Each structure stands twice: as structure tokens, then as C-alpha cells.
């Protein structure tokens, strides 16, 4: 009976979630970094071109006959138009007095005094002008007018539409990049999670696909992390196998030890029975002999079962004719059947070679035949059919006994389970178990049915070629 | 009426020419109304383009939109600037040949942005900030009277012109003309672009100055005077106006200077004070489509926008903030001083 195993969640799902989660975090970081970088670069490039413009205007200032003269170079403003279609404003002042340009344009304030030592000071601000956000660069130069130093300040400003457009474009690209990165990493993450769980899955499948008797250690190579688990599993299997073998050996040994003294006791009992005259004592002795028979039969079947278990573990296959084997078994059982006036009829006997262990198969056929004779009423016949069917060959043994009640035919083939209607008959409950294990060891099966006409059981053994 | 009006001009056209109307501060040159039977809406255009030359474009628009009455006011380019930027006159479309002033209007926030499929047909250099849209490409030409040049080689470029003027001072004395750049916005634009391109401009100006140059406000007057023989050469005349005067064939010869020919883009903007900006947009689409498509060929009165400017002697003036430089007060004062020194000797 398998009990439900407590689950602490799926490794695959957890691994996938963790990897996809980290991919999402990385993609977001990538997106933010690219965006920040792009903003810095575009701000820097706008500042640079504004500086170039302001500087070229500043260079055009000179003193002519004691007055400040400004000759704005055409390129000073046209260069701003080459980069973007932004609005351009400028203001030129000398010693704080407005000379030309846009008189209401603010100047970027000088920050601190540490910059004052440079020949030309530059400062930047971003502010609102004529309803738009603008970037202003102010540059200052000192000229000497009539021996007096005069500060010439040139401010050049540009709206930031082109910059925000570029940024929007870059952020779209960065978004696509981030999403693409995420999609690829997520796919890789799921693939990685799957492939890392695959050996575990493969081990589970190979263990669960094993037959009930397959107690070989796991041989196929496994990842290093799974070696402790598989090593423990193998040692567990080995211990289980040892334990099972020990108990089978014990049962066989016990049965063997019991059977021999029982035979001696039976012979003694029969000798005594011949000598005893008293009716009462004779009855008691007969009862004793019957019980001894039952015990020795049980011991025999236990031995049989132990033999079947051993031989199916180390199945030897050789080719033989199943029909011959069945005829031989019928021959052997004939005396027992004769004692109860039961006739065994071979209704069909198709010859057919199969590969298998004839000793095991004979044991199976004899156990079924023995059951049939046991449960069949006297003066009735038992029908045997050996027929080719479905790429194999089947042996059908049908009696006129009480048949199966149909309540739990499947359980009848378990050890020591007997039919509901079998209480009156001597039996150990191992016969059908042996037959089933033999059939399964050869890749075949055992089926239990009731006969459709006239009642009785019909037991079929099927072996594939 | 000097020009033959187009045959399909069956509508009543009222023209008040050369009248300065007192109700607004800026000086109006002419006012024309293009009424319709059942006017639903009205489109007010302020423009520097001659009414007669521009009329086919207006009429073609009305044919497509028969319920729109149009008022067409012509002014000089500096008065257009005054009307829009100082007085905030409620015009829907402002059309000017002075690219620098149009650019300044757009730069200083007196215009609206407009986007449309038609506007997207314009090449990159044909529009600025989705505010300024060009729809013509007009050369600054030299117009001569063939009679006055009889026996002389027809000049092909500025250097030829300088030589021929220098060698024949008696023939050309007082018979050369050009824009008075102090009053004409377009003249100033042409002069500053010429000066920017080549030193030849100053030498030519000096030669013209030495001959006693006649100064004009407008291209049409220069063309008239060349045709009548009053002057022999006019420098920096709008080639489009000269070409439009088919009636003067034989009396004038138009020369695109081979050293370099400045190309001006006539542009349209939608002022912020426009009452019907959507109509204005439709009209701008109409101008662009007329300029660029085959359908406009039948009535389009200007030289088409040429998208291929590979001819090396063509110097198209580019829209952009560079145009603001010569509008700077100090810069302008300096330029005019030099110009006066050269031309008014």
C-alpha cells in the first residue's frame, strides 16, 4: 500500500521562479542604467554644443574704438539647428548691461568662486522660458575697455524637445532591449530548471517502472549531487533484498524441517491405526492423519512457493513444448483424480514452443489442476484446452466446482487468501499465487473466470511466444 | 489690373490696392476678398506674395472648399512681422518670402505646430519644427534688359557682371538696381546670404554703388523698370516673379548666376492668434500638395520645390536658427553699415 508523500513544493517551479525573478530584476536594472546613461549623454551633448555656440559668440566680441562690438558668427546659431529643431535664444551683456539678443532671457548664475580663476566661466541651468523648459549656458570673458576690465557674458539657450524626443526613443529601445533580455533569460531559466530536474525525474521513472521483484541496484550514471541519494537508495535496496531473501530462506528451511518429521509421524500414525481396534481411537487417529496431511501439504506449497520465488528471480529460459508439459502434468495427476472418479479430458491440444522455465510452469499447471480436482464434485470431468491465441498460447483448466464468487478475484492470487466458499476444502491459499507469479515471470498472465455453461471455475494461464 | 486674371475666376474679386488702412497699425499694401455664395467659414491670409500671382492658389482652394470665404492681405515682410509678433493680428495663415522672419516668428513662439500627411511629404529641409512649411523654391536672379546689353557679352555670373559694369561705366551709370536692404526683408535675406557665401557680393555692391544704384522695395518694380528700359540690370530679383511675366518676353532676360544662385523658400506659418487653425492647416496642405503633386501643375504659379538639389551652383537657404543671426540688432546694424558704405557712396 502506498501512502501519500508530503510535498514541500516543486523544485522545478521554485528554480524557474527564482531564475525568472532574477532575470526580471536584471532586465529592470539594465533598462534603468541604459536610460540614465542615455540621459547623461544627451544632456552632456546638448551642453557641449551650447558651450561651443556660446564660446564662438564670445570669441567674436572685441573692443572697437572703446566700445564692445559683437559679430555673432552664422555658425554659432546654425550649429544648434543641425542637432535638433529646438528653439534657440541668446543674450549678450557687457558689465551686466544688456547688449543684444533676448533681453528677458535669464543668465545661468555663476556658482562659487573656485571657477572664477578660469579665464572663461561657464555655468548651466535648466529653467522655464516662454512656456518651455530650456537649458541655458552662460560663458563669461573679460575684455579691457579704456583700461577698465569689463565682463562680457554670453548666454545661449535651447529648448529640450529634441532631447526628450531622443530620450523617448532611447527609452523605447531600452524597453525593447530589457523585455527581450527578460524573455530570453526567462526561456533559458525555464530550460535550465527543466534540465536540472530531468535526472531526478529519470531516476523516479526508472525506479517506479520496476517490477515488484526487481531489486537490482540503480546502475545508470547520475549527477554528482544525486550520488548520496542513489547510494542510500542502492544500499536500502540491498538491505531489503537481503532481508527478503533471509525470510524466504527461513520459510523454506522451516517448511523443509517440518515436512520430514511430519512424514515420519504420518507413517507412525498409520502403523498405529492398523493396530488399534477401538472405534473411537481409530477416528481420532484418522483425524490426526488428515491434519498431518494438511500440514505437510501446506509445508510443500510453502516450499514450492519459495522455489518459485527463487527461480523467477533467476529465470532460466529454454525452449520446450507447452502441450507436452501439460500432458505430462495430467498424467501425474491422473491417480489423484481417479481416486475421486474424476475424468480429465483434453479438449484441445495445440502444440507450441515457448521460452521459459519448464519446472516453474509445471508447478503452476499442477497447482491449478490440483485446485480443480480438489473443488470438483466426484463423477464430474475436468476440461483442459491448450490453444494458440493473441501471439501466445493459453492453458485453460475448467471444472464443475462451485466456481468463484466474483467478490474479489484479484485478491485470490495474493498469498494465503482463500475464496469465500472454500472453507470446507483443504488448502493453503498459495496455489493461485504460485500460478500467477510464474505467469508474470514469463511475461504472461493468469485470469480467473466462471464457466458460462453449467457452472464451475475456468482458470487460464497465458504465455506469449 | 495689370495681369490677365485666370478664365475660371468668375467670382467677384474686390481689390483695394496700395491703400494703407488705418484700422490696424501695420501697413497694408493691398486687400482682396474672395467671397462665396453661402459662406460658412472665413480664412484670413496675410502674405507678402503679389495678389495676382497668388490668386490661382486661393481659387483652387475655394474650388475644393466652396463654402470658405477668403480674405487675402498683402504686406511687406517686415510689416508681416510687425502684424503677427507685435500687434497679434488675428490672421489664420502668414505667408512670407522672408525665411528669417518666419523662422523668428516660430522660434519666439508666435506660431502653432501643425502636423499632417501632406506636411510629411516635405523633405526634412522643407519644414522647421512642424511650424514653418515651405512650398516654393525661388531663385535670386539677375534680370537684364537685352537692349541695354546690345554689343556686350551677356554676363553668366557675378564676376562677368562686375567686369561688364566696370568696363562700361557710361552705359550703366544710374541704370543698375537692387533691393534696398534696409526696408526690404527679402532683399536683406538675399544680401546677407550672398555675403555669407562669397566676397564677390561686396565687390559687386561696390561696383554698383559707384554707378549710382537705384534702390527698390520690390522685385516687381525692378522687373517693370528693366522692361521699360529705365534700368539695364537688376540684381537679386525674385526669379519667380520675372518668370511669371510672360508678357515681358523679349524685354527682359533672366540669369541664374552660374557661380552660385541663392534659392529662397517661400514659407507659411499658422500664427498663435489664428481663429481657424484647422482651416489654416487645410490651406497649408493645399499649398504643399499644389507644389509637390502633378494635380497642382495646372495652376501652381511658383517654381516647384525641387527635392534634388545636387546642382552645385544652387545654394538653397536652409531653415533653422542660423537665420536668426542676421536678425540680431548688432549684427544687422553692422551689416547695414557695411552695405551703406558699399552701395551709397
Give an account of the 3D structure.
- The complex is a heterodimer of chains A (465) and B (345).
- With 465 residues, chain A is an alpha+beta fold.
- Chain A has helices spanning 11-59, 74-83, 161-208, 227-275, 279-313, 322-339, 358-375, 409-412, 431-441, and strands at residues 61-64, 67-70, 88-94, 97-101, 121-129, 132-145, 148-159, 318-321, 343-349, 353-356, 381-389, 392-398, 445-450, 457-464.
- A five-stranded antiparallel β-sheet of chain A has the order 4-3-7-6-5. Chain A has a five-stranded mixed β-sheet with strand order 9-11-12-14-13, covered by helices on one side. A two-stranded antiparallel sheet of chain A has the order 1-2.
- In chain A, a hairpin with a 2-residue loop joins strand 1 and strand 2 (67-70).
- In chain A, helix 5 packs parallel to helix 9 and helix 6 runs parallel beside helix 7 (358-375).
- Residues 112-119 of chain A have low confidence and may be disordered.
- Chain B has 345 residues and is of the alpha/beta class.
- Chain B folds into two domains: 14-137 and 265-307, Periplasmic binding protein-like II (D-Maltodextrin-Binding Protein, domain 2), CATH 3.40.190; 138-263 and 324-343, Periplasmic binding protein-like II (D-Maltodextrin-Binding Protein, domain 2, 3-Layer(aba) Sandwich), CATH 3.40.190.10.
- Chain B contains twelve helices and 16 strands.
- Residues 1-12 and 15-23 of chain B have low confidence and may be disordered.
Amino acid at each position: 500500500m502506498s501512502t501519500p508523500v508530503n510535498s514541500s513544493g516543486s523544485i522545478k517551479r521554485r528554480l524557474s521562479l527564482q531564475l525568472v525573478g532574477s532575470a526580471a530584476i536584471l532586465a529592470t536594472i539594465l533598462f534603468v542604467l541604459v536610460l540614465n546613461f542615455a540621459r547623461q549623454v544627451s544632456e552632456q551633448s546638448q551642453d557641449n554644443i551650447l558651450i561651443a555656440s556660446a564660446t564662438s559668440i564670445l570669441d567674436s566680441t572685441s573692443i572697437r574704438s572703446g566700445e564692445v562690438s559683437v559679430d555673432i558668427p552664422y555658425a554659432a546659431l546654425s550649429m544648434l539647428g543641425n542637432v535638433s529643431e529646438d528653439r534657440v535664444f541668446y543674450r549678450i551683456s557687457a558689465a551686466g548691461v544688456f547688449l543684444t539678443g533676448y533681453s528677458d532671457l535669464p543668465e545661468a548664475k555663476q556658482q562659487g568662486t573656485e571657477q572664477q580663476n578660469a579665464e572663461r566661466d561657464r555655468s548651466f541651468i535648466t529653467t522655464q522660458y516662454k512656456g518651455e523648459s530650456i537649458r541655458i549656458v552662460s560663458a563669461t570673458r573679460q575684455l579691457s575697455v579704456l583700461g577698465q576690465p569689463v565682463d562680457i557674458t554670453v548666454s545661449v539657450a535651447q529648448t529640450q524637445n529634441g532631447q526628450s524626443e531622443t530620450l523617448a526613443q532611447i527609452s523605447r529601445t531600452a524597453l525593447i532591449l530589457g523585455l527581450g533580455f527578460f524573455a530570453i533569460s526567462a526561456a533559458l531559466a525555464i530550460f535550465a530548471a527543466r534540465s536540472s530536474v530531468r535526472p531526478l525525474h529519470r531516476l523516479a521513472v526508472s525506479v517506479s517502472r520496476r517490477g515488484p521483484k526487481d531489486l537490482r541496484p540503480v546502475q545508470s550514471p547520475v549527477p554528482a549531487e544525486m550520488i548520496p541519494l542513489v547510494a542510500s537508495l542502492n544500499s536500502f535496496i540491498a538491505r531489503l533484498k537481503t532481508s527478503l531473501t533471509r525470510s524466504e530462506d527461513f520459510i523454506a528451511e522451516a517448511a523443509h524441517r517440518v515436512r520430514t518429521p511430519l512424514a515420519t509421524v504420518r507413517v507412525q500414525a498409520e502403523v498405529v491405526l492398523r493396530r488399534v481396534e477401538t472405534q473411537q481411537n481409530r477416528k481420532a487417529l484418522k483425524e490426526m492423519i488428515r491434519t498431518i496431511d494438511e500440514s505437510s501439504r501446506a509445508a510443500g506449497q510453502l516450499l514450492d512457493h519459495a522455489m518459485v520465488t527463487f527461480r523467477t528471480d533467476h529465470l532460466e529460459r529454454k525452449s520446450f513444448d507447452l502441450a507436452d508439459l501439460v500432458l505430462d502434468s495430467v498424467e501425474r495427476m491422473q491417480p489423484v483424480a481417479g481416486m475421486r472418479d474424476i475424468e480429465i479430458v483434453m479438449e484441445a491440444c495445440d502444440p507450441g514452443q515457448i521460452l521459459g522455465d519448464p519446472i516453474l510452469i509445471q508447478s503452476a499447471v499442477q497447482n491449478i489442476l490440483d485446485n480443480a480436482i480438489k473443488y470438483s464434485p466426484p463423477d464430474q470431468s475436468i476440461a483442459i484446452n491448450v490453444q494458440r491465441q493473441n501471439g501466445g498460447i493459453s492453458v485453460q483448466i475448467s471444472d464443475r466446482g462451485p466456481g468463484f464468487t466474483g467478490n474479489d478475484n484479484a485478491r485470490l492470487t495474493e498469498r494465503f487468501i482463500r475464496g469465500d466458499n472454500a472453507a470446507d476444502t483443504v488448502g493453503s491459499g498459495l496455489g493461485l499465487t504460485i500460478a500467477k507469479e510464474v505467469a508474470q515471470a514469463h511475461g504472461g498472465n493468469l485470469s480467473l473466470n466462471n464457466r458460462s455453461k453449467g457452472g464451475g471455475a475456468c482458470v487460464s494461464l497465458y504465455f506469449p511466444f | 489690373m495689370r495681369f490677365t486674371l485666370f478664365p475660371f475666376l468668375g467670382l467677384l474679386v474686390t481689390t483695394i490696392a496700395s491703400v494703407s488702412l488705418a484700422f490696424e497699425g501695420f501697413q497694408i499694401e493691398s486687400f482682396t476678398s474672395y467671397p462665396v455664395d453661402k459662406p460658412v467659414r472665413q480664412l484670413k491670409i496675410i502674405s507678402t506674395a503679389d495678389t495676382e500671382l497668388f490668386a490661382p492658389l486661393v481659387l483652387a482652394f475655394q474650388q475644393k472648399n466652396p463654402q470658405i470665404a477668403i480674405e487675402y492681405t498683402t504686406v511687406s515682410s517686415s510689416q508681416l512681422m510687425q502684424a503677427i509678433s507685435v500687434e497679434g493680428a488675428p490672421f489664420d495663415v502668414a505667408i512670407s518670402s522672408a525665411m528669417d522672419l518666419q523662422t523668428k516668428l516660430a522660434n519666439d513662439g508666435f506660431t502653432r505646430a501643425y502636423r499632417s500627411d501632406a506636411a510629411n511629404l516635405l523633405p526634412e529641409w522643407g519644414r522647421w519644427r512642424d511650424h514653418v512649411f515651405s512650398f516654393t523654391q525661388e531663385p535670386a536672379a539677375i534680370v537684364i534688359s537685352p537692349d541695354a546689353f546690345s554689343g556686350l557679352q551677356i554676363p553668366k555670373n557675378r564676376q562677368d557682371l562686375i567686369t561688364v559694369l566696370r568696363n562700361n561705366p557710361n552705359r550703366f551709370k544710374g541704370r543698375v538696381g537692387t533691393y534696398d536692404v534696409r526696408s526690404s526683408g527679402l532683399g536683406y535675406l538675399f544680401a546677407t546670404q550672398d555675403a555669407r557665401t562669397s566676397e564677390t557680393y561686396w565687390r559687386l555692391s561696390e561696383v554698383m554703388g559707384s554707378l549710382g544704384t537705384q534702390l527698390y522695395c520690390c522685385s516687381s518694380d525692378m522687373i517693370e523698370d528693366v522692361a521699360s528700359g529705365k534700368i539695364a540690370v537688376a540684381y537679386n530679383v525674385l526669379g519667380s516673379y520675372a518668370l511669371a511675366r510672360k508678357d515681358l518676353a523679349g524685354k527682359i532676360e533672366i540669369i541664374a548666376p552660374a557661380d552660385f544662385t541663392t534659392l529662397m523658400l517661400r514659407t507659411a506659418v499658422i500664427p498663435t492668434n489664428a481663429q481657424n487653425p484647422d482651416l489654416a492647416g487645410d490651406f497649408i496642405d493645399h499649398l504643399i500638395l499644389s507644389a509637390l503633386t502633378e494635380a497642382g501643375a495646372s495652376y501652381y504659379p511658383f517654381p516647384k520645390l525641387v527635392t534634388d538639389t545636387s546642382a552645385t551652383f544652387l545654394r538653397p537657404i536652409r531653415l533653422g536658427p542660423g537665420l536668426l543671426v542676421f536678425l540680431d540688432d548688432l549684427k544687422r546694424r553692422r551689416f547695414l553699415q557695411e552695405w551703406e558704405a558699399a552701395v551709397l557712396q
